[in-house]
Amino acid sequence: MNGISDDQPGLFGWVPAPPRGQGRPAFEWSREKSNRIMVLFASGYQQGDVAAVIGCDVKTMRKVFPVECREQRRAGLVLRSGMMARLLEEAEKGNVAACKELDRLVVAEQARAIDARIGKPDRKADKKPVPQGKKEQQQDAAQNVDGLFGTRKPPPAALIN
Predict the structure, then answer these.
(1) What is the per-residue pLDDT for 85?
(2) What backbone phi and psi angles, to 5 degrees, belong to 109?
(3) Cβ partners under 8 Å of residue 44, min gap 6
(4) Which of 4, 69, 78, 127 is deepest in the core (most CB within 10 A)?
(5) Alpha carbon distance 111, 80 (integer Å)
(6) 114 Cβ partners below 8 Å, 6+ apart?
(7) How many helices (H) and strands (E) does the chain have?
(8) How far is 31 from 56, CA to CA, in rounded Å?
(9) 4-45: per-residue pLDDT in tens?
(10) Rounded to 5°, angle at Cα 32 from 93 and 36
C-alpha cells in the first residue's frame, strides 16, 4: 500500500487509524480494547488520548464503550481490585510472593481509604524533614544566638520621640 496504514500491527499490536476517505469498517467492542481503555483511564489519561490510542474518535469511543467512559473515575479502583483478586487466587495456591504483594496492596488500599475519609490528599507528602549536615547546623546556630552576643532589642518607642 502507501506505507501510511497497511493494516499490519505496529507497536504492541497497535494499528494506526487509516486517513479519512478510505472508509473504515465499523468499530466494534472487544474485551482487549475495553481492558486497554480501563488501564489507560486508571493511569490518568483523558478520553481524547485514549481514543487516539485505540484508533477511533472520542465520539465513537463514547458510543462503543459507554460503560468504560462512565466508569472513568473508578478505573483505578477497578484495576487494583482485579489485580488483588488475581493475587488472592495465587496466594491461595501457596505462592509466597503473591501473599507478600497482596499484603502490601491491602495495606496501601487501607491507607488510601483512610486518607480519602479524612480528606488527606496523599501520604507521600508526609515525609520526614531531611536531616541537616554539620555546616547547616552551625549556620542555623549562628543565626539564632541568644544572650550577651545575641541580637539586641530596639529601644522602646517612648525613648525614640
Answers:
(1) 92
(2) -70, -35
(3) none
(4) 69
(5) 14
(6) 120
(7) 8, 0
(8) 16
(9) 445 566 667 776 666 666 666 788 889 999 999 999 999 999
(10) 95
Q: Give Cα 38 distance to the centre of its chain.
A: 13
Q: Are 25 and 7 in contact (CB under 8 A)?
A: no
How many other CB atoms are there within 10 angstroms of residue 40's CB atom? 20
- Euclidean distance between CA atoms 31 and 18, whole angstroms: 22
CA atoms within 13 A on the CB side of 11: 3
10: helix, coil or strand?
coil
Give pLDDT, residue 132: 85
CA distances, 52 to each of 19, 114, 144 (Å): 13, 36, 59
Sign for the CA dihedral angle at 44, 46, 52, 54 comes to positive
